[in-house]
Amino acid sequence: MKYFRASFLITFCLISFSGFSQNEPTDIVNNFFTQFEEQGISVALDGIYSSNEWMLRSTDAISKLKSDMEGLNEEYIGKYYGYELIVAKELSDSYILMSYLVKYDRQPLRFTFQFYKPNNKWVVHSFQYDGNLSDEIEEAAKLYYLELKN
Question: Is 69 inside a domain boundary?
Fold first, then answer.
């Protein structure tokens, strides 16, 4: 009986904790990439946009995004190797941007997520992808961005 109570308590705590943590931006992103790797981009995009009922009204834009991203297949961009956080910026306690390097054979891509918490739940406010990393890193290396010695 003691074993049953202890295992019930542990299970209850784990369920409660996992339900609570599912709403954090990092958990939403990790879930996105898990779905992306296992089920494809369409399912992953449906998953992140389902957190925001207002985004569900933008079905045409989401369909176009899915179509564009499905073109980023192994024949076009090569094998997928994973993702790494580039930067996370917190504008306030209610607005966060997270940008990830997504690694492929041909070139890296950047996936950028913006999260908004209007009340007590984080929702995906925006998702974008691009391949402009090399342009930006070259720009960042320009002399006028560097601190020069006197």
Answer: yes
* pTM reported for the whole predicted model: 0.76
pLDDT at 56: 66
Q: How many domains does the chain have?
A: 1
Range of the domain at 121: 25-145
User: What is the length of the chain?
Assistant: 150
56, amino acid identity: L
Write the CA distances from 138 to 84, 121, 141, 144, integer angstroms: 20, 38, 5, 12
